[in-house]
Write the structure tokens for this entry.
Amino acid sequence: MTTPAPASSRRPLWARVPVISHLRQSIGLQRGMLIVGLVLTGLFLLTALLAPALAPYGFAQLRGPDGAFGATQPPSAEHLLGTTQGGYDVLSRLIWGSRTALLVIVVAVVASILIGVALGLISGYFGGWLDRVLVVIADAIYAFPSLLLAIVLAIVISGGQSSMWGGILAAALSITVIFIPQYLRVTRAEVIRIKSEAFVESARVVGASHARIMIRHVLRNSTRTLPLILTLNASEAILTLAGLGFLGFGIEPTAAAEWGYDLNKAVADVSSGVWWTAVFPGTAIVLVVLGLTLVGESLNDLSDPRLRKRAVGAEPVEDLLDPAHATQEASA
Amino acid sequence: MTEIVEIRDLAVTFATDHGPVRAVDGVSLAVQPGEVLAVVGESGSGKTVTAKSILGLLPETATVRGAVIVRGRDDAAAGGGSSAGGGPADGADVVTMSASRLRKLRGRDAAMVFQEPSTSLNPVFTVGWQIAEGLRAHGKMSKQEAREKAIDIMRRVGIPDPETRVDHYPHQFSGGQKQRIVIAQALALDPGVIVADEPTTALDVTVQAEILDLLRRCRDEFGAAIVLITHNMGVVADLADRVAVMYQGKLVEQAPVRELFANPQEPYTQQLLAAVPRIGEGLARAEERASRRPAGWEDQAPVVEARDLRIVYPGRFRQPDFVAVDGVSFAIRPGEVLGLVGESGSGKTTIGRAMAGLTRVSGGSFDVLGVEMAGARERDIRPIRPRIGFVFQDPATSFNPLLTIAQCVAEPLVVNGRFGSAEGARARVDELLEAVQLPASYGDRYPHELSGGQRQRASLARALALDPELLIADEPTSALDVSVQARVLDLFDELHRELGFAALFISHDLAVVDMLADRIAVLHRGRLVEEGTGASVLGAPSDPYTQRLLASLPVPDPVEQAARRAEWEALRG
């Protein structure tokens, strides 16, 4: 009998969580990229969660105890990053804006994962005409320019109104529609692969129902690549939101802070030497997208054993293949 | 004459996610010019890694220590003269060699034949181009010359009509012919040594015999030494001059082939040889089983009965339909084991799948446990599912990787409502695991934490969970090592004795089927060519195909195999 795998291969639960397990496996440049990505993403999440505590003013606040802030004030002690054309505090809107971005990401990603994975599972498992129809629709959506589709949906959903939740939902749902085909395609491809595996057939042979096979055997085995698309989609969601805001389909400044909208309003400032209204929201978008993309790309490389770098050159500490053999040797 | 390859104290370590792993540990080997050295061992014994190190083909994650000296054919003959390529007189160490020198060495001094011929040829180039590629990489040769050389070498490896075939693509050749072309590629530059990594494992027995014959000619006519990596002791007995046995990265024993088979020194070698199934061993078992049967057993209604069974896979894009099973009739009576033997494409797996309701029956009648499978719908089949157990070929993929072994084994119990949950079924699962000789604690492990043999035993436990009347085993041991296979087969026999299920045992290996089956059915291209007891089918085969199948099966005994080879050559004409 060959010796069983060492008990140490069962790592504790926390070490098997996707991102953490990836971090533990990583090394060198790959690890650096992942850490930079995680730090940027972590900062973004913290800012969003602690916005009320961090922001010196409200996102729609125009006057403090000493009267109005004044328009396009340069950075100063009261307004660390200056004020905008409309007289808002740039830093406050920057911090509150992360909240809007996070909400849009969460709503968009959750909705598109739920719908996309469910459709992909059904489409891949049953096949036939339903599969063909769903794939054609998904391809058709792929063919649309995503921003155009988002604009159309934003108009349909919010009807031009832009309250905070109306704006967030409009942005999130329009992004959802663009992302569903991605999740559908990825899940469907995995499901088709898993469906022909022997363990699925063995479930069929013992008489398991379709629902049981789909949920217990197929679904859990076909979600491996989702964390990766999730992070990449999150960064795309931010860009779409900012694009919508920049084009004027975003959220009114009194309803919520939104980076794309601020950038739009800052266009005119740049030529008049007012740099702080454009640079800071722009940098925020770039850093968040960079952080999320770095996490996504690193996860992609680390999940693939062929791309993953490992420490080379070390000698084995002990004979991992056969502990019994090693002890024999030691006693000999 | 000096050694053509000399491996001195080779140690290879791989960097893995779980830290460095030693794959080869202190192996020293030498290959003489024009000899066949067989390196045998089970999976994970380091035989492939050792052989690949001769060509410097190890992946980046490997760290190599020791020396691998490869001498050109001329060097070895001259006892260390100057090499044509300008290498040092005493050969060159592959371990420390630069990449460009390594490229010069590959193909010219040492070549490789891979296991799977269909993936080692590039599908978008003609075979002639692929043979010529190696020639042109090593010497200044015009296209025309290279083409002529390719035609010549193809003729010498036995490809008929090489002048036209040289322009054909790999998919236009059969599996055996593709392997011939791979060997032709290896022979093109007349290398001193050819490393053949399981060259016949992916091939059918009758084709294997022909490829072994060709490899023998590589040695006799081309004068090449061959390092043959294999786990098949029959192949070793047929072809090898000398055998090196490896176990867990170490060289256990090294001896000339007849000496090793007749008088193995090390306990591991003895155990390995004892585990190899031999035809004829099953006869006593079958007789013993027959004697235990109650009177009137012969007249019992069969559990499975096929009459003119026909299974057709519809062709696509106006291609003709593929007839996988064509007019097959057989019956399995209660408690009987029917062995179904055939080469790839013979339809044996299709019959097994149809019996379990996984493949649609196209014609004839197929009565399984009282349900007519021809035209049956899922609803009709479901009631008999609990009465059928199925053991799949590859134990690695037949378990859901996210469930523990206990959960997997409990699945049939839960699905069929015997227990509410996997936890509730645990007592029964432990019982089942014990029945297949696995400790109950293994139930908490995940499938990847078990070895292949352990997994296949768990698979047997799952198939037997509902105490089925009928068990279908589709090549249950073909993915396992010989010694593991022997234990799984013994277990199968024992369980069959205790539980008395009827079984369809599908295998390509005559010796394995012989050990277990009461009756043997031989399939050839979808047709049943011969059926009968083991003694009659294997002892006195009447069908020419069965005769050929038996004759081409290499016997794990070099003396006997030499006699059989002569017989086979006579049969082939």
About this structure: The first helix of chain B runs from residue 47 to 54. The CA atoms of residues 113 and 134 of chain B lie 14 Å apart.
